[in-house]
Write a structure and sequence with these properties.
Elements lengths: L17 H25 L6 H21 L8 H21 L12 H10 L2 H20 L16 H81 L5 H24 L12 E3 H9 L8 E8 L5 E3 L2 H17 L3 E8 L3 E8 L6 H5 L13 E3 L2 E3 L6 H11 L3 E6 L8 E8 H4 L26
Parallel strand pairs: 2-4
Antiparallel strand pairs: 1-3, 4-5, 5-9, 6-7, 8-9
Organism: Methylobacterium soli
EC number: 2.7.13.3
Membrane topology: Multi-pass membrane protein
């Protein structure tokens, strides 16, 4: 249980800014205008000048409308980008229809929108744009105005040449589209891998910083906790049997809480440590029992069960994983209204643990930013056990998720979706070989926690 899972760190690098498309279209408008003006006035060719500039003006009006309607940083969806590129193909086809169809050497520009689509859009939309370009090229090979020529003559190219141009456009669209998509996809995969690595390193850095803070906190808090323990013992000695039952109970509770604080600080300073001896490995049912046993005295109903296929899995003790799981259970108890369920399952291939409650569930912010530090929805006036407690720092889920995923697990957060059910659901899943890695074979006694852990009368906080 020592692998680090990087699944889920994927960044969508396809969506391009609208500003990119607008700038490319302005470049096309400038080139088309220069070509029309140069052919009409520079070479003296007979062009339908007004109609050509009307088609070019349509692109200009679309650009101006997009610039006014959307900000420059607006990112286009795949469908919007495909529609804009389809407009460019149709606009180019209209211009070529007026200037000779496929006899016009600029018919090669059919490749440009398809090439842009291949680098920025999914293959399905690139295929649709390619079919649109080929369809319009086929239409232009059959129907078009004459190629502009000098006023004293007219040129008519043979149909075999037109067929060759059509074939070149077809093959060029297919080859450049596939080639550009393959290169762009490899670039995207590399960028996503780098982004995932950066996120993992950032999380590890945060956790390393917290490890140092935990050690410092344990060192600094050790002295005042020791002082509180000494003062408590002195009060017990001074009061003796004359103390009222309420005072004696409060002093006993104070000593228990000081011991608990010491235990927590000890865990924080040894999350990456390992325990040896005959307790070096633990069965899955024992792990669940250790997880829920400290919470038996709480007022919320806490149930645990385990069921599986084949022999019960055995894992090496990992204090970091136990700390992360305990943190998730604590959160479930904090937000549950009446019930928390811890359900363990295993098969021959996978080992999973599901923790669910009947509380309000995860907020959309937590679901979107799960695993990031300093994300919390706890308000300062939150009431637990009849008492008002302060807001959290938003580190508990981050620490728990990072520690658990270090073991090779996949952790997912969701809300109950079945009719009549509510609450948060946390699912942790390991591949069985990873879960059992490092466990030495030994005889594990039979143990079951299939019965609810509420056989004892719960004691309110």
């Amino acid at each position: 249980m020592s692998d680090t899972s990087t699944s889920g760190f994927v960044r969508d690098a396809r969506h391009l800014r609208l500003d990119t498309f607008v700038r490319l279209r302005w470049l096309a408008i400038t080139g088309q205008s220069a070509a029309v003006v140069g052919a009409q006035f520079g070479l003296g060719l007979a062009l339908p000048f007004g109609w050509c500039f009307l088609v070019i003006a349509a692109s200009s009006w679309l650009n101006l409308a997009l610039r006014i309607r959307f900000p420059a940083s607006y990112r286009l969806s795949d469908d919007s980008a495909a529609l804009l590129l389809a407009f460019d193909i149709i606009q180019l086809a209209a211009l070529l229809f007026l200037t000779g169809g496929l006899q016009n050497p600029f018919s090669l520009l059919f490749l440009a929108p398809v090439l842009i689509s291949a680098t920025a859009l999914p293959p399905e939309r690139t295929l649709a744009l390619g079919l649109l370009a080929i369809g319009l090229a086929t239409l232009l090979a059959l129907v078009h105005r004459p190629l502009p020529w000098f006023s004293d003559g007219r040129i008519e190219l043979p149909f075999l040449y037109i067929s060759g141009v059509w074939t070149a456009i077809l093959l060029g669209t297919a080859f450049t589209g596939v080639y550009a998509w393959r290169v762009a996809e490899e670039t995207r995969q590399l960028a996503q891998a780098l982004a995932a690595t950066e996120l993992v390193l950032a999380r590890e850095q945060h956790l390393s910083q917290l490890d140092g803070l935990a050690a410092a906190a344990a060192h600094e808090l050790g002295t005042p906790l020791g002082t509180i323990m000494v003062v408590t013992k002195e009060l017990v000695r001074q009061l003796g049997p004359t103390a009222s039952p309420a005072v004696a109970e409060d002093l006993s509770l104070l000593r228990e809480q000081v011991d608990r604080c010491r235990g927590i600080l000890s865990k924080l300073t040894s999350l990456d440590g390992d325990q040896g001896g005959f307790l070096q490995t633990v069965s899955f049912s024992h792990l669940v029992e250790e997880l829920v046993a400290p919470q038996r005295a709480l007022g919320t109903i806490l149930e645990a069960s385990n069921q599986g296929e084949g022999p019960e899995p055995v894992c090496r003790r990992n204090p970091g994983v136990m700390f992360g799981l305990a943190n998730i259970v604590d959160n479930a108890l904090d937000f549950a209204e009446s019930r928390v369920v811890v359900e363990a399952r295993w098969t021959l291939d996978r080992v999973s643990l599901e923790i669910r409650d009947d509380g309000p569930g995860f907020s959309s912010e937590v679901l979107l930013r799960a695993g990031e530090p300093y994300v919390t929805t706890r308000s300062p006036d939150r009431v637990v056990g009849g008492e008002t407690v302060g807001a959290g720092l938003g580190l508990g889920l981050f620490i728990a998720k990072t520690l658990i995923e270090r073991s090779g697990a996949q952790l997912t957060l969701s809300n109950a979706s079945q009719p009549g059910m509510r609450g948060a659901i946390v699912r942790i899943s390991w591949a069985r070989p990873i879960f059992e890695r490092g466990a030495t074979p030994r005889q594990i006694p039979e143990f079951s926690v299939a019965q609810p852990l509420t056989q004892r009368d719960p004691t309110p906080i």
